[in-house]
Each structure stands twice: as C-alpha cells, then as structure tokens.
Design goal:
Layout (H helix, E strand, L loop, with lengths): L11 E6 L4 H14 L4 E4 L11 E3 L2 E2 L2 H12 L7 H15 L4 E5 L16 E4 L7 H4 L3 H9 L8 E4 L4 H10 L4 E3 L5 H15 L16 E3 L4 E5 L4 H11 L7 E5 L7 H14 L4 E4 L18 E2 L3 H8 L6 E5 L2 H10 L16
Parallel strand pairs: 1-5, 1-6, 2-5, 6-7, 7-8, 10-14, 11-12, 11-14, 12-13
Antiparallel strand pairs: 2-3, 3-4, 9-10
Length: 356
C-alpha cells in the first residue's frame, strides 16, 4: 500500500465483512451513495462471469483497458502477491485514478488477516455470521465471529447485524468493544437494504432505497422458461435461499444443481432436499461448476441426472416442458449459466438499470 502511495487515503473507504449477504449489502450501499450524487468505487469477490466485475466504478464493471493499466502498476511492484491481493490493490489504484469519492471494500475471507484490512476506513459493517472456512477461521461460530469482528479499528464506527446469541456477541465485543448491534429481518434483499440504511445513517450519510441488480442473488432471467439463479453457496445461505425459493416454485419446475467442495455437504443439502420432497421438480439436473476457485464436486449425494458441463445441463432444461428452471448451489455455476446465455455484458452486470 505504501509503495502505491496509499490510494485508500484518497477516498472514503467503507469495509464490509460477513458470512452471507455482504455482497448484496455492499451493492445496496453503493447504489444509495450513487443515487445521492456521489462517485463510488466497489470491490467485491468472487466474480460471477468476468474478472472485471470485481471492480465497479459508479456501478459498472471496470473496462478491460482500465483494469490492465491498474494491474501493470501492481506488477511493477515486483511483490509475491495472491490473486486476491492483486485485484484488491488494483481496485484501489483504479478507483483513485477515476477520482472516486467513496470506496466500498468487501472482505474476501474472514477479516483479521484479510488484505482489505490494510485500508484506512471511515466505517465498518458485519452482516451475518455462520460457521464457514473452519480450517482457517476456527472450528466454532464464536471463533469465526471473532475473526470477522477483527476488521474493527479504534475510533472507527462499526455496525454488526445482531447474531442473536450472547456467546457470539461477547466474542465480537472482545475485538470490537465499541460495536453497535442492529436487528434486521426479512428476505436477503430486505436485510441488505436495512443494513445499508442503518450503516449509512450511522455515518451521517443519506440513504435512498434503490432497486439493485446483483448477479446470482435471487436473479430472475425473463427468458422462456423463466430462470431463477441464486448461489446459496454455504449451509446458512441455502437455508435462507430455500425460504425464498418455495413461494416462487410453480407446479412444473426443474432444478440445476452444482457445488464447490463443502465442509459439511449433508448440512448444505438438507434444506434443499426437504424442499424437493415437499415440492418435487420434474427433473433434477446435476453438473460441475466451471472455472471456480476449487474444482466442482462430481460425486454429489443427491439423486439426479448428471451432465458433464453446465452448458449441456441448461440446454437440456430449456427444452423441457417446465415454467421455471432453478439454478443454485454455487456462485460459479450461476456465472457459467449467465455466460452461456449471454447475460454478462456491462449492462447486465451494472448495479443500476440504465435509462432506456
């Protein structure tokens, strides 16, 4: 950061962590700031369809030319950096060059040791907490919560979605004794909007409710048949997603499912299997997500018809006599489907719909 001239100090940075919902909340914060006339940079991960979407400038994915220019500056540092660290630093360089007033930073994993923790920020927010990445963050939810709460900085406001359990609150307050807890309810989108409102208000910034397009999060493609995509990539995410899937399921629907490796595949699949039992699909299509951080799982403990690629699965599904195709289980699988169907343009990946 010092070698780059501390680009973070040239912008008002906001730091967001959490197990689920942090990307959606980042998007809501960015959209509100944009709607209120601010220039806003946004760094999130992973990318769904194109690497450029990790960096959004005023809601739109960075151009390949601008991205390459920022990457060259990081390369010239001649440091041994991870892919995440490179894209994080590139986001700061690119957004500073674009004269962004605000910069929203989503953690990659955890908080305490995440690269984004090196930025100077004016506010921190933590969304939901669940037991994830136990090999790195700890084998109890309290340990995971502690790692995420460690994004706290002395003198910097920090807001935390109330985890609803005293032992978790205590572990977070050890790292962030000045934290404020807030209760939010409703759908994933409702919770993201509520957290964005509470967070911006706590920083003395205006909040304006804004419709946001956030790929692979309860995203509906209005094609024939309709396609509903949601990544639901961990057990807590799947539990919440299933609650929202059920009211949207017509009598005739099919499921496309694929997953990256899970710490507890049984726990991950349990809510989905219950939904299938109560609302049987016409067919279950299983496949292997492509181009992810980890290889997709091939031997899935769920009954269905195997397709070697997502392309073959969606091609089969679109020929079926169904009213809805549900795609879930992996961010990368959702990204594969968006690419295959051509829903990966700058317009498709922009936070706000452009005026027609």
């Amino acid at each position: 950061m010092d070698l780059l001239g501390r680009p973070d100090r040239e912008m008002k940075c906001l730091h967001i962590a959490g197990s689920n919902g942090k990307g959606s909340t980042c998007a809501q914060i960015a959209a509100s700031l944009l709607t209120n006339g601010n220039s806003v940079g946004l760094f999130t991960s992973p990318h769904i369809a194109r690497v450029e979407e990790r960096i959004r400038i005023n809601g739109k994915p960075i151009s390949p030319t601008h991205f390459d220019r920022a990457l060259r500056k990081i390369r010239d540092l001649e440091l041994n950096l991870t892919f995440f660290e490179i894209t994080f630093l590139a986001s700061l360089v690119a957004c500073k060059e674009a004269n962004m007033e605000f910069m929203i930073l989503e953690t990659g994993l955890g908080g305490r040791l995440d690269a984004t923790r090196t930025a100077e920020v004016i506010g921190c927010l933590i969304t939901s907490i669940s037991l994830e990445h136990s090999d790195i963050l700890g084998d109890t939810i309290e340990k995971v919560a502690s790692e995420k709460a460690a994004i706290a900085r002395s003198g910097v406001p920090i807001l935390i979605k109330d985890p609803g359990q005293e032992s978790i609150r205590k572990s977070m307050l050890i790292e962030a004794p000045h934290a404020q807890f807030v209760e939010v309810h409703g759908t994933i989108k409702d919770q993201a909007k509520s957290l964005a409102k509470e967070f911006l208000t706590s920083l003395g910034l205006p909040y304006t409710p804004t419709d946001v397009r956030w790929p692979a999060r309860m995203q509906q493609l209005n094609v024939e048949p309709i396609i509903l995509l949601d990544a639901a990539h961990n057990p807590s995410g799947m539990r919440q997603a299933v609650k929202e899937f059920i009211p949207q399921l017509p009598e005739k629907w099919c499921l496309i499912f694929g997953s990256s490796p899970q710490t507890n595949m049984g726990s991950f699949l349990h809510p989905l299997k219950r939904m299938i039992e109560q609302n049987p699909p016409q067919k279950i299509l299983l496949t292997k997500p492509q181009n992810g951080r980890y290889p997709g799982v091939e031997d899935l403990p769920i009954e269905g018809t195997w397709f070697s690629t997502p392309e073959k699965a969606i091609e089969f599904a679109q020929k079926m006599d169904v009213d809805l195709i549900l795609v879930t289980g992996s961010l990368y699988l959702c990204g594969n489907i968006l690419q295959i169907l051509g829903f990966d343009s700058d317009e498709d990946l922009s936070l706000l719909a452009q005026p027609s």
